[in-house]
Design goal:
- The longest helix has 15 residues.
- The two termini are about 15 Å apart.
- The protein is α/β, with parallel strands linked by helices.
- Bound molecules: NADP nicotinamide-adenine-dinucleotide phosphate.
């Protein structure tokens, strides 16, 4: 099968399209399915792994990736091609979307409990844009910040993958949403339901005198210390900075010394319950993806460059095999 792979850390050009063996479903792959991939999306996860971002190197190999062939892609929309032992929720031919590792390829293996049936109201292309970014927004707002009706919620980086879903999910919980993005994105982000817009090229939200119950710093252009005066006394600041694992011990130490527990981070966890929740939102027209551009798999290098630029409007999607 055709797959985008890399063998060393580096710029987008280390990626190549190669013919490799498709993943198999063997005895040990209980609860797994094989998916024929139609579309996948590109996340910061992909370029951070490809570049060999420091915290990732600690796990994946300090100077070079431990595994000889590295595959990327953590979102998938496709058709079930085969099912492994003890799979109960899917059959061959089912259209699905969800999380996996290695979807920038014609076939990928996934856990049954990380995927969900495709919503009737959207296409494979749209579905591929949703899983990781929307799960991250959902789990940050609902599970970490415990979002409530009428709370004042600020999303910094509201026009990106996670941010544009966070705006819609916060509105679903009937929060009063302030969305922060650059001038060119103000209109379409407002149309997602944001109550107030802030153009970060003209105004610094940490200096406007407002207090927020939740600040979701998706763009991670601020720090907890810069934002803490903009939080209510019981407010929560959540960073999506990829250095989260490194910050965590400092956060715990800071909280235990000062008693201030308002600075938080988290890692999203794929699971079928949350995927089903997102599916409901999609079916009821309460969540929709904004897709800026679709690249064919052959142009994976351009797709990485696009996302790494840090100014994606919504999501970038890769077309693998049209479904
Ligand atoms: N917790 C998890 O498990 C998890 C999962 C997914 C992602 N993440 C992390 O979340 C972060 C965002 O991911 P993403 O997929 O949303 O990225 P993305 O799609 O690349 O979006 C980045 C956004 O940041 C905005 N931005 C850039 N500079 C800004 C500034 N100075 N002020 C405000 N906004 C600014 C950009 O908007 P403009 O074009 O308007 O500047 C762009 O829309 C990444 O660090 C990623 O690693 C974490």
């Amino acid at each position: 099968m055709k797959a985008a792979i890399y063998r060393s850390y580096g710029p987008p050009e280390v990626l190549n399209i190669e013919d490799i063996e498709p993943p198999a479903l063997q005895e040990e792959h209980e609860g797994r399915v094989l998916i024929q991939v139609h579309y996948a999306s590109v996340n910061p996860f992909d370029y951070l792994h490809r570049k060999g971002y420091f915290p990732i190197r600690l796990v994946n190999g300090l100077f070079a990736p431990k595994e000889q062939i590295q595959r990327l892609g953590i979102d998938v929309a496709g058709t079930i091609a085969a099912i492994g032992k003890n799979v109960t929720r899917f059959k061959v031919g089912d259209p699905i979307f969800g999380n996996c590792v290695g979807s920038h390829a014609e076939y990928v293996r996934a856990r049954e409990n990380a995927i969900c049936m495709l919503p009737n109201s959207i296409t494979f292309k749209e579905a591929a844009a949703i899983p990781t970014a929307a799960l991250t927004a959902l789990q940050a707002l609902r599970d970490v910040a415990k979002i409530e009706k009428n709370q004042k919620v600020l999303i910094n980086g509201a026009s990106g993958g996670v941010g544009h879903f966070a705006v819609q999910i916060a509105r679903f919980y009937e929060a009063d949403v302030t969305a922060v993005c650059s001038t060119t994105n103000l209109k379409w982000v407002k149309d997602l339901g944001a109550n107030t817009m802030i153009d970060y090229t003209k105004e610094d939200f940490t200096r406007n005198g407002e207090k927020y119950d939740i600040i979701l710093d998706v763009a991670a252009t601020h720090t907890y210390f810069k934002c803490k005066d903009s939080l209510t006394r019981s407010g929560v600041y959540i960073t999506e900075n990829p250095l989260k694992p490194v910050y965590r011990p400092f956060q715990i130490l800071f909280s235990s010394i000062t008693g201030d527990k308002r600075g938080k981070s988290h890692l999203s966890l794929p699971n079928d319950k949350d995927m089903a929740f997102l599916r409901e939102l999609i079916e009821h027209g309460q969540l929709r993806p904004m897709i800026e551009k679709v690249y064919p798999l052959d142009r994976i290098v351009d797709a990485h460059r696009h996302v790494e630029n840090g100014h994606t409007q919504g999501k970038v999607v890769v077309e693998i095999q049209k479904g």
